[in-house]
Amino acid sequence: MTKERKMTITIPQDELMSSGHLACQGCGATLAMRYALKALGQKTILCIPACCWSVIDGPFPHSSLDVPIYHCAFETAASSASGVKAGLEMVGDQETIVMAWAGDGGTFDIGLQALSGAAERNEDIIYTCYDNEAYMNTGIQRSSATPLGAWTTTTPVKHYKNRPKKDLIGIMAAHRIPYIATASVAYPEDMVKKYKKAKEIKGTRFIHVYAPCPTGWKSRPDDTIKLARLAVQTGYFPLYEVENGEKWTLNLKIKERKPIVDYLKLQGRFRHLKEEEIVMIQREVDANWERLLKKCGI
Amino acid sequence: MKKVIMGNHALSYGAMLSRAQVIAAYPITPQTQVVELLSEMCADGTLNAKFIKVESEHSAMAACLGASLAGARTFTATSAQGLALMHEMLHWASGGRMPVVMGNINRAMAPGWSIWTDQNDSLSERDTGWIQFYCSSNQEVLDTVIQAFKVSEKLMIPSMVILDAFSLSHTYEVVEIPEQEKVDAFLPPFQPPYRLTPEDPHAFGGLTSPDHYMEFRYKLQKDIEKVPALVEETGREYEKMFGRYLGQVDDYLCEDAELVFVTSGTAGSTARVVVDELRNKGIKAGNLRIRLFRPFPFEKVRSILSRIPKVAVLDRNVSYGHHGIFYQEVKSAMYGQPSPAAIFGFIAGLGGRDITKDDYKEIANYALKKDKPEEEIVWIGVKK
User: Fold this and answer.
1) Which CATH number fits the domain B2-177+208-241, given the four candidates 3.40.50.620, 3.40.1550.10, 3.30.1360.20, 3.40.50.970?
2) Do B58 and A117 touch (CB under 8 A)?
């Protein structure tokens, strides 16, 4: 007699995203949306500014999502979501979750002012930044989320990005909003758990999702999960939470971080880097990691 | 109830009586009292609305649009630089068919910094698909806000209610504040045909191919063309309930006139006084104050001006490299009409310089003496 084996399913089986979307092969942003909606459920309204997702969803009159979407202006994800939430409450809907869903350009750069305003007011919204580290929808131009050393079409090999990625979590934490989390498409259980936790919290919740982009990173579409996992395992994109701007918690402790070169070498955008430049990037990752451990009290 | 209030507060009372549900605004001189009073009304419960105190005008309009799409009646107010910062979102409002009503205090654009009146701010937004009303008294401001909500929500097109900086915004006048029950009867709650709700999920404003885009814009144009008739109808309905009539234009003694001033805003009130004075001297003058500027009231303007020998258009604005904007619009409306009038274009009062009775008399002298304009633009009171 075979023993019955049971596995606990932590990721909801309901699908709010259908397969008829327009994403590139291996798109991390697509996985991010699928998991986020699984966690939040159908009573969710999205505000999507100009970003890959304004295309991925599908052209009028189609939509690949079974939730209402307001396609809003580039710099208005947070201000539009603030308005939607206020409008819903005034027409008697206190329940529906309003989520701004923006790329790194719409968050780190052009939408930062509106995001800071919404966070300072502690608007009752979830703000997701799915980060693919450049303006991918317009064809791979650098943003302030583009990492040190990366090639983009506006940071050519001869003049690659020579400044580190903006510390957005630091900026958001300084607003002392109730909840901030990082998440990765390589760790769906962790991501779903964080969205479910965010759903139960009132006020501004900010979730930073790491979303590899094979098209822009010049990586293999089937390496998306591997890259997202390596970003976590190297300590380049750690999984952690910040509550009320003060309580920092590292969710995935890594005993031995993998060298950053393992992550870099799978991507064409870093192909030009010389050994000493990789050493420089390793130092940057190490310093960020130490800073994070300190904040987490480790 | 009668109250002595400033023009800015007439906007606030208009929004309150219209039961605006979401207000998002950012302060700018000379608009601040509009939102200060609304903040107080929201805080003390006089108005049951959410006031989002945003960090810029761009976010103010963005938040209004989100709230409008969620099904709430929304109001904001701004001026000059603030309106210019909203520019992108103004297209969003009309393109997305979100019937926001906004007060705009006409203020000159910087540089140099000016807080005084002129129309280049709102007229720069002429082509954004908004309905534009230019007001000449505080009573008209209050009444227009209520009427604008009715017109906007019927056609799902946003409206701008425009008043001059200081000469109206900060000027106190007696204003009849209508009773709330009567306003409720005139203006029913906002019930948009579609809204953001999980019960009926739609994607609004998504990627629109050349196969569809043009039809959306065609429909916007077709609907905004319905505004002149709707403004008349709404004005008559309002008159029945409140005893005051406001139409597309305010024409004064134009019937038998040999010279008609075409004016807007508070400069239109001065023109009325000048018309009386000229008539006392035996000059048959008239005044056509344009209240509805967008859509342009072609039929109304044609029906009044086509019989007039001399038309003097006064602009408190300029389209650099062209003419005053009202002048352009009036000429365009009169093109090809059976009995064309001689139309003169004058520019006065930029950056808040007073437009005086003497200025109008200079305008009248010029227009009456000449068969046709001898200059592209006749500048009044400019130090050359």
Assistant:
1) 3.40.50.970
2) no
Contact (CB, 8 A) for A42 and A90: no
Looking at 3.40.630.30, 3.40.50.970, 2.60.40.10, 3.10.20.90, the CATH number of the domain A28-295 comes to: 3.40.50.970
List, for residues A176-212, the tens digit of each pLDDT value. 999 999 999 999 999 999 999 999 999 999 999 999 9
Nearest CA in chain A to B55: A117
B8 CB-contact burial (10 Å; exposed 0-12 / middle 13-18 / buried 19+): buried
What's the one-letter identity of residue B25? Answer: A
Is A137 touching B (CB cutoff 8 A)?
A: no
* Stated pTM of the model: 0.97
Task: Answer whether B206 sits within 8 Å of A54, measured CB to CB.
Answer: yes
Kindly report the nearest CA distance between residue A89 and chain B, in angstroms.
Answer: 9
Q: What is the pLDDT of residue B341?
A: 78
Touching check for B194 and chain A: CB below 8 Å? no
Residue A149 has pLDDT above 70, yes or no: yes
Q: Which of B62, B201, B208 sits opposite A59 (nearest CB)?
A: B208
Is the pLDDT at A133 greater than 80, yes or no? yes
Options 1.10.1040.10, 3.40.50.1000, 3.30.300.30, 3.40.50.920; CATH of B251-379: 3.40.50.920
**Residue B182, CA distances (Å) to B42, B140, B213, B240 in order:** 21, 17, 41, 11
Interface predicted TM-score of the whole assembly (ipTM), two decimals: 0.97
As a whole number of angstroms, the distance between CA A118 and CA B3 comes to 37
Contact assignment for B58 to A79 by CB distance below 8 Å: yes
> Nearest C-alpha of chain B: how many angstroms from A240?
29
Closest CA–CA distance from residue B271 to any residue of chain A (Å): 42
Model confidence pLDDT, tens digit, residues A21-67: 999 999 999 999 999 999 999 999 999 999 999 999 999 999 999 99
B210 in contact with chain A, both atoms CB, cutoff 8 A: no
Phi and psi of A99, rounded to 5°?
A: -125, 120
How do residues B212-230 score in pLDDT, each as one tens digit?
Answer: 999 999 999 999 999 999 9
